[in-house]
């Protein structure tokens, strides 16, 4: 089943009449809220404060900071009219918030006592993608969190970049059961105006495409220069001599992940029946369904079902009961399979007599009869096994797609075979641009995804697959979303 069918039939999204804009239904929002609950708690440990900045950016700010905006220019949506009147100057809708936030950072920061400044906001952004929108993968409006932090030193900045990147890895691998690679983006692919960009990269075996799952950027001091964000540094010898106009530039980071994470999860685990949800992000982890037989005592069965839901809920397991009488048990089974609920508990009159329940796994369809007295323990074990199994299965499929290449011919064959390519590279911008140009086709071009932190040995004398120059790093390549 293709992504567009899965997300609609499983009630993740509904299409809106504006192309590329989607209605996130409760099933999607509850997954997003579970991810938010984890991430928000973690960044608050770092003393991050919550902010909300306006979504509008004035044209004069855009023009002043056009070097930064150039990277987003094709995607920026503009408001030009209010009511029947034309605006004196168009107003941009944020594609990202640096130009909204940083003028105020310059106002709020005066000395080392104002540092570090750490803020985060949960909001939506608009990027009017020129290419064909894909639900939850390339949307024109999407939800995200964006963290913006300011430090006195590069060391503090570097440390946070990697700390946040590890949190993003945990979101994907520990919650969404999606294997990712941590690494550094190339100069061509890094965040516009930043010093360097790190990312977690996923790969979808069914389509043979990589996908940038989240980024953590060290912005360096470029934005500090752009927005004149200075501080009086107590460690600066010039300050100790009380010399005038001797101020230091701050160091900045920005980092974000989006509702794309839900789309990556759907494509990684979904099957012909619909969604397959990892238990840690499933809004409902266990759905209890009574299965009435002829002449069955439905009152007794329903009472047992309600007791099971209560018992599981008290143990912290997200459980619910589908007691609707106008649908058959078979329809309910199919419905909750479509929505990806990890476990289904079925109870009929025989189960009642035997003081047991039948438990069915969504990921592999396995069925097992469990004594009612040990239900909580068995269910928790099964949920943990499903979570682990989904990750291991996804990792095996991803790893099977990795192909190590050393030559251009091997590279082009792997691209055409929809592989995740690991290749030695000279790390030169012009070579990367040339690779993209030479592989351009109906399916798009191949590009660097990241240079993984977990680098294989680079044997002396190894040359770049594309240029023949001495290789400086191993890098993942492939087509991407």
From TrEMBL:
A single GO molecular function term of this UniProt record: ATP binding
Catalytic function, reaction form: tRNA(Pro) + L-proline + ATP = L-prolyl-tRNA(Pro) + AMP + diphosphate
Alphabetical list of SMART domains matching this protein: ProRS-C_1
Pfam families: HGTP_anticodon (PF03129), ProRS-C_1 (PF09180), tRNA-synt_2b (PF00587)
Residue span(s) of domain Aminoacyl-transfer RNA synthetases class-II family profile: 30-278
Source species, domain of life: Eukaryota
Example GO biological process: prolyl-tRNA aminoacylation
Keywords carried by this UniProt record: Aminoacyl-tRNA synthetase, ATP-binding, Ligase, Nucleotide-binding, Protein biosynthesis
The protein's Enzyme Commission number: 6.1.1.15
GO annotation, cellular component aspect: aminoacyl-tRNA synthetase multienzyme complex; cytoplasm
SUPFAM superfamilies named among the record's database cross-references: C-terminal domain of ProRS, Class II aaRS ABD-related, Class II aaRS and biotin synthetases
Enzyme class: ligase
Name of the protein this chain belongs to: proline--tRNA ligase
């Amino acid at each position: 089943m293709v992504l567009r069918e899965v997300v609609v039939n499983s009630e993740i999204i509904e299409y809106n009449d504006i192309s590329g804009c989607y209605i996130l239904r409760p099933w999607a929002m509850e997954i997003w809220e579970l991810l938010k609950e984890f991430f928000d708690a973690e960044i608050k440990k770092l003393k991050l404060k919550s902010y909300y900045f306006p979504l509008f950016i004035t044209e004069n700010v855009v023009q002043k900071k056009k070097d930064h905006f150039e990277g987003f220019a094709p995607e920026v949506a503009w408001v030009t009219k209010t009511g029947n009147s034309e605006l004196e100057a168009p107003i941009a809708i944020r594609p990202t918030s640096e130009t909204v936030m940083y003028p105020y950072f310059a106002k709020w920061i005066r000395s080392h006592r104002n540092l570090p400044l750490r803020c985060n906001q949960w909001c939506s952004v608009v990027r009017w993608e020129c290419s064909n929108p894909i639900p939850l993968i390339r949307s024109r409006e999407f939800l995200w969190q964006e963290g913006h932090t300011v430090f006195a030193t590069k060391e503090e900045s570097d440390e946070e970049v990697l700390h946040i990147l590890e949190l993003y890895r945990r979101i994907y691998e520990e919650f969404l059961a999606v294997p990712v690679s941590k690494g550094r983006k190339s100069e061509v692919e890094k965040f516009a105006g930043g010093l360097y960009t790190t990312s977690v990269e996923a790969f979808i075996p069914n389509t043979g495409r990589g996908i940038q799952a989240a980024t953590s950027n060290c912005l360096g001091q470029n934005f500090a220069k752009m927005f004149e964000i200075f501080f009086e540094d107590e460690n600066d010898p010039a300050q100790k001599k009380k010399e005038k106009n001797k101020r230091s530039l701050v160091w900045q980071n920005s980092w974000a992940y989006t509702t794309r994470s839900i789309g990556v999860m759907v494509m990684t685990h979904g099957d012909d029946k619909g969604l397959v949800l990892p238990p840690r992000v499933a809004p409902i982890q266990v759905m209890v369904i009574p299965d009435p037989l002829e002449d069955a005592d439905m009152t007794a069965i329903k009472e047992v079902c309600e007791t099971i839901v209560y018992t599981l809920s008290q143990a912290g397991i997200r459980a619910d009961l589908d007691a609707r009488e106008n649908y058959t048990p078979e329809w309910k089974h199919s419905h909750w399979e479509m929505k990806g609920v990890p476990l289904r508990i079925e109870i009929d009159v025989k189960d009642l007599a035997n003081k047991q329940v039948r438990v069915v796994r969504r990921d592999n369809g396995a069925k097992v009869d469990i004594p009612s007295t040990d239900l909580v323990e068995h269910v928790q074990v099964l949920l943990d096994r499903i979570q682990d199994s989904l990750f291991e299965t996804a990792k095996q499929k991803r790893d099977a797609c990795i192909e190590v290449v050393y030559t251009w011919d091997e590279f082009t064959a792997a691209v055409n075979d929809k592989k995740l390519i690991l290749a030695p590279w000279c790390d030169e911008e012009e070579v990367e641009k040339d690779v993209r140009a030479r592989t351009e086709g109906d399916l798009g071009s191949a590009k660097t995804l990241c240079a993984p932190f977990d680098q294989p040995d680079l044997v002396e004398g190894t040359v770049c697959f594309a240029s023949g120059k001495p290789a400086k790093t191993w890098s993942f390549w492939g087509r991407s979303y």
